[in-house]
Structures are given as structure tokens and as C-alpha cells.
Design goal:
The chain has helices at residues 14-27, 38-47, 97-111, 126-135, 151-156; strands at residues 4-8, 52-58, 61-73, 78-88, 116-119. It is of the alpha+beta class.
């Protein structure tokens, strides 16, 4: 894997991160789903630090992305690392970059005392599933079902907020 490097992304990488996100969306058959912009990436990854990103570089060319954030487990009482996106450009697959990303993520997880790492994979993405299970020893979480609210659903939650009574306690 000579000539490759995995490094933390910087604000100057926002355009490249967005391109890798778009490339991932195309691979996942959802090319029109990307709403991110370089400004949103700079704001939310680098300023507010809601997420973190690693880039795989071939010289000066970004060829892969791992975007992750920390969650928390009430059961373990410790943080966890959630891998939101992992993408390696097709012409750079099977060169060890996926393993190298997981090596870096594992190092970060150990340094931050994470009890576990989680991620999702599309059911049709058998090459990735095989890699996760056979090479990494990951276990599927088949007893769990993912749930999501998009913006309209989040807005609808406002109708569930308890109104405060005169003393500040719920009415």
C-alpha cells in the first residue's frame, strides 16, 4: 500500500469530502439524496465538530473517506464510535484501504475509551458485508431495526412538548 496515507480531514478538504460523499451516493443508488454543501461540511464537521472525517490519500488525491461521530451507551457507561460513511473509490478497492480505515478508527476508539463501534450497511452490499464479517469479525445486529425521522418528522415532534405550568413544572 505504498504511496497511500490516511489522515484527518481539514476544513480545506470540504470540497473533496463532498465529492466523495456524492460518489458514495451514486454507488448506493441515491445520487440525488446529497444535500450537503462545502459550507455545511466546514460548519458541522470542523467548527461544531458534530462529526469527524478521515481521508485516504494517494499522493495529493483523496481516494477514500471515513466519516464518524461519537455516541454513548447507557449499558456500558462509555462512548461508542459510529461510522456514518465509509467509501473508497472503485479503482482503489482491494488495496487494503478499507482495512487501513478500520485500523485508524480502531485506534481512535481505543484512545477515546469506546466500548464498541457501530455502522450500517445496505442489505444488497454483499461485498462489504463479507468484508465486515469475514475480515473484521463484525456481527450483524439483526435483532435491531433502524428508525429515522426526517425534517418534517422532527418538526412534528414540537406538538409533543409538555407546556410548562406557572411554577415551571409540566402542566
Amino acid at each position: 500500500m505504498s504511496g497511500f496515507l490516511i489522515r484527518p480531514a481539514t476544513p480545506e478538504d470540504a470540497d473533496n469530502i463532498l465529492q466523495l460523499i456524492v460518489d458514495l451516493a451514486v454507488y448506493e443508488k441515491a445520487p440525488d439524496a446529497v444535500k450537503a454543501t462545502p459550507d455545511l461540511l466546514r460548519q458541522n464537521i470542523f467548527e461544531k465538530q458534530y462529526a469527524h472525517a478521515l481521508l485516504a490519500m494517494n499522493g495529493d488525491k483523496p481516494v477514500g473517506l471515513a466519516l464518524y461521530f461519537f455516541n454513548y451507551s447507557t449499558w456500558t457507561g462509555r462512548p461508542g464510535l459510529y461510522l456514518e460513511d465509509l467509501y473508497v473509490a472503485p479503482e482503489y478497492r482491494k488495496l487494503g484501504l478499507g482495512k487501513a480505515f478500520f485500523g485508524e478508527l480502531g485506534k481512535i476508539a481505543k484512545e477515546t475509551n469506546c466500548a464498541r463501534m457501530d455502522w450500517s450497511v445496505l442489505k444488497w452490499n454483499q461485498p462489504s458485508i463479507d468484508f465486515y464479517e469475514k475480515k473484521l469479525g463484525a456481527k450483524p445486529m439483526s435483532e435491531w431495526m433502524g428508525m429515522r425521522l426526517e425534517e418534517d418528522g422532527i418538526d412534528g415532534l414540537q406538538s409533543l412538548v409538555l407546556e410548562a405550568g406557572p411554577s415551571g413544572s409540566p402542566a
